[in-house]
Amino acid sequence: MSCINPPTALLFDQVFGTLVDWRTTVAETLSKQAALALNSSSSIPTSVRLFASTVSWSDFAQEWRDTYKNFTTAQSTPSSSKANGKSAFKTVDQHHHESLVCLLADHKLTGLWNSEQLHAIAQIWHFLDPWTDTSPALHDLGKSFLTCTLSNGNVSLLRDLAAHADLPFSRILSSEHFGAYKPSPVVYNGAAEHLGLRNEQCALVAAHLSDLKAARECGYQTIYVEREDEEDWAVEEVMAARREGWIDMWISLDEPRMSKWGGLGEVRARFAVGDGGRR
Predict the structure, then answer these.
(1) 172-200: pLDDT as tens digits
(2) In sequence order, which residues have a C-beta less than 8 Å from that of residue 46 and are 6 or more positions away?
(3) Is the Cβ–Cβ distance between 210 and 233 less than 8 Å?
(4) What is the pTM of this model?
């Protein structure tokens, strides 16, 4: 990517991880809600209390996140139901609730929370806290670029997340709009068309190389922002991707200015936008 010929739009893929610290928020919420339930209800079975006292909520949060990845990968083809004019497209909200129930059963924790509490806990994905660099950089980038979500999260989730974390997007786009989940080309092509742009005028910003590879195959420019523990590819695959050069802008965790700007702040700095452009 050349700053002489920058994209018109920056689309943010997988808001979870790229822009927000889902791990901390989800693990802390699960731990807090478990403690509240155990301390306030005498109807929880003894066996559930025992398992709840030994579970690692950080590991549980990762398992929950992994079910999301598996779900969206399996659903990454256009919805035949939507094509037929029906509304059977399963949202990420529905998945988060169903998978939470299943994971609790797998960990022998059924009964720890009642149905109302389960619904509220499943909604935590609407209220994740951002990385410290995210909001300031987005405010500045929005002055020079059209900024847009392109997430598998459903529209209501993304709107809540943007409001909670002060993420000032120009537009909210979701896979829900296109009846398919990324990495389906339907989503990338549909997003560019929706914005009235050619694919090459769009740049995907993501912390996951698999998403960027799919976007590149659709003609997008690509910006990789490394985040701690977010990359699923093996070290060898990451190194190969860097050698092959299909990432236009690569922001590493060990960038000299990372401690000052942060990941998205470094994107802002390279485009010489806002505070990040002040050398």
Answers:
(1) 999 999 988 998 999 999 999 999 999 99
(2) none
(3) yes
(4) 0.89
